[in-house]
Batch of 2 targets.
Target 1
Amino acid sequence: MADKINYKSVFFNPFSKDNPVVVQILGICSVLAVTAKLEPALVMGMSVIAVLAFANVIISLIRNTIPTNIRIIVQLVVVAGLVVIVDQLLKAYAYDVSKQLSVFIGLIITNCILMGRLEAFAMGNKPWPAFLDGVGNGIGYAIILVIVGFFRELFGSGTLMGYQVVPQSFYEAGYVNNGLMILPPMALIVVACVIWVHRSRNKELQEE
Amino acid sequence: MKPNFEPGGKLHAFHSVFDGFETFLFTPQTTSSSGVHIHDRMDSKRTMIIVVSALIPCLLFGMYNTGYQHWLACGESHFPFWELMLYGFLAVLPRIVVSYVVGLGIEFAVAQWRKEEIQEGFLVTGILIPLICPVETPLWMLAVATAFAVIFAKEVFGGTGYNIFNVAIVTRVFLFFAYPAQMSGDKVFVATEPILGIGGTAPDSFTGATPLGEVATSDAASGLNITGITGDPISLWDAFLGLIPGSFGETSTLCILIGAAILLATGIASWRIMLSVFAGGTVMSLIANWCASPLYPASYLTVGQQLCLGGFAFAAVFMATDPVTAARTNTGKYIYGFLIGVIAIVIRVYNNGYPEGAMLAVLLMNAFAPLIDYCVVQANINRRMRRLKTKES
């Protein structure tokens, strides 16, 4: 690689300007599925950070030995291995959350962000920048997950991380949790709002 | 007063608000200065006013029925007309006010912010929202739902005339899905508390489910019995007149038909859509009735009951014909309306979880209306192309 990679931009760009969810619109399905509560959203975010970072490093280490025509298979095997490890760890140490996330941990394998980063970055870069890129993109994904999860749990269940935050007196005064927030369509609308706010703050991202 | 709002005037920032009120009250006198233009006096504000006036029979009857159901629930046996009307008026007034204040507030704010003229589409929506909601809907829920619908169903698409979905229906659907416990069942459709000392308090034991709600939960094997809140059976005539529990303005098929007559006489609503919605509903009810099964109690309803109960007629006359969200081509209108009728009855009969399907049917077909139009136009183009080719060859 002739051009020098700016480590800082590799790490920080995915947070906002190059965010995998709200700019590249990748991995939307898991954002819709796991964000009804904040806790699973957080765990899902951390799992993706871990899997993405290590997958990036491993692929980057063996990038020169992978035959090009079977590279997708190799990438899938690496990701699948890591996902199984994360899944087993969650089952061992956070069984309840793993129950809630159910199939979606397994579906990290098919998360478009992973394949995208492996193809676009890890296949052509050294392990250290690849690691930074993986962590950065993972965090970018997790941020959105947490924002969406925050609003959905707050308005949908009146709780955060399982603790009730909407005071009981509100309920007595007639306040009712918004059932639509729990349903997936509202997740889509919340993501749309995040994109809306994000675009209006970053003019250069607005399309014509 | 006007110069204050002209460019450079003190209150120029609010010129769109002023402009909105001025053109609302007076037909604009400005004429275009170049070329030949033909203007009709029927601008969109005048159109909206006619739709609102077509809704007035439903509104008045809704007031009477609210009072009537309340008196019934309290176990009264004589029904003083003016007290019933006053009670209904007091029950619906806060809802109309909330719906207009929230909706118009957002419209005005957005118009100011974008420096555009105020669009008047909310005039109709604002009166439709209280009419299609249960009378006991908490006011704050109504406010949240209205705000959601105006912002996400209308303003993000570019305001009046650009919305894909009918705003009033989005409000209703938001309420239905967001607060299911409050929006269905037997508590919201009949007012139980006295308002300003008028009326009494209903005993806790009464149930005020809508007829369709009752049907959905009834045991079909022992035969359908649709009863009013006092336990007397509801006849088809009652359902047609509208003396049944239900959302505020949609119970009376008679008043809806009066409104339909006004809309058709003034040429505002499309008779093609209305006709085909009723045709679709009739066909599907016949099919459902023909292969009725105890699994789906609503399939035992006759065609007349299907069309008179619930929000079907209201949706057909006032919702499906919304010119912005309906199909534009004439052939498309038949298809659009027919499918609304069919889908409304399908949801009503085959999904026991949703006693009423008309609003969902309209919303779904709103989404398909552009596709229907596209297909109709394409089919027309293809037919003409073929004609051209046969002539050439």
Target 2
Amino acid sequence: MRIKKYFYHLFVMVRKDFLLEVRSKDVVLPVFIFSFLVVVTFNFALESTPNTANLIVPGILWVSVLFGAMVGFGRMFLSESEQGAFQGLLTAPIGRDVIFFGKVISNVLFLLLIESILLPILVVLFNVTLSPLYMLYVSIPALFGISLSGMLFASISMNMRAKEVMLPILFLPVVVPIILGAVESTYAVMNGDNLDQFLKWITLMIVFDLIYSVLGPVSFTMIVED
Amino acid sequence: MLLTSVGMYVVNSLLEVENLEKSYGRNRVINNLSLAVNSSEVVVIRGANGSGKTTLLSIISSLVAYDSGVVKIFGKDLRSDPHEYRSQLAFVAHQPFLYSQLTVRENLEFYAQLNSLDDFRNTILEKTSLIGLSDRLDTKVSTLSHGYVKRTAIARALLHGPQLLLFDEPESGLDRESLGLLEEIIDSELKKGTSILMTTHSQEIVYKGVIRNQRISKGMLVDEN
């Protein structure tokens, strides 16, 4: 019963974020435009040939998603900071972890949507082939890792004066294992590497996600109550 | 009422605050404060700006963590049983705790669902009709006047039938008609056994019935009656 209630509250939180996104367009559109511009810039900056495309596309994909996600983290709390809505959540009879995981799940779904538009653009611009199913296996642990750590550091830097500077300084060094795992597993998908190689990087990302699934809500609770 | 070990009945307070302490850095804002609020009681805490009124309500509403002391509602401790504790109260603060991009109905449905209310659609219709919001249900909060935003905030607070209602300076920004409506709501909530704890810095307050006055100064309570 308690677990059912927990997931119901998570669903209510995520649905609210989607409703707010439909109305305000605060997150998906600016993040997509930013990520798209990163991809286009790399397309002009790097001379891609049929031989090099498979080497550079995984890096371009995940750097553009990562930088776009950083733009989105702060904006995920924008509607919450207006009219004290965040305080309203804190007085509701739900755990602080529900608020945290609600934001993480919303962010993962937003990023998944953005990535699903970016991938065909990359395929056309760099003339590569990508298996959508295998990319889903890579994207889910990668986007969870980015969102779990990102939401934690976004909430830490939320009340800092130099939050625009502090978020990348705190977040980028921590998210290195996820980017490494995402790039290497995407490379394995594109180049048809053996399954062991692919699973090794997926496992690394899942371990990271598990660590931050514990660290994230505990730290978030301490931050919002202080 | 509780039966004690020596066979005496004692009145059990709805809200119990004991030896509460809170500091921001070196600045002690709540200083060894104790307060009890009984069922169907209106307690008004008066004090100058910076005396600790809002901090006290923020602690009781679980928005701000306290350094030491005990805060309980019906014996449910804020620290050991926070979910049960929070389900017993509602806070109407300066900010309305609403999403400006959502309609009144969407905001109320969201908070009703967070409070796990079963028949929330009917509850929303009932509360908004009581508070004169029925014709604004599908209006975006961002387009409402200040008075109607405050009404929506009050409707949000009443949704789950809290035992304790916290009001932080409820008179601010309300016209005479809204103040009259708020007084009616307080009356009707008192009849249901709800307690009201409100703060104000003005001499006039929204409720003209029986109240218990307390003055707060430098984070300490001083009895006025």
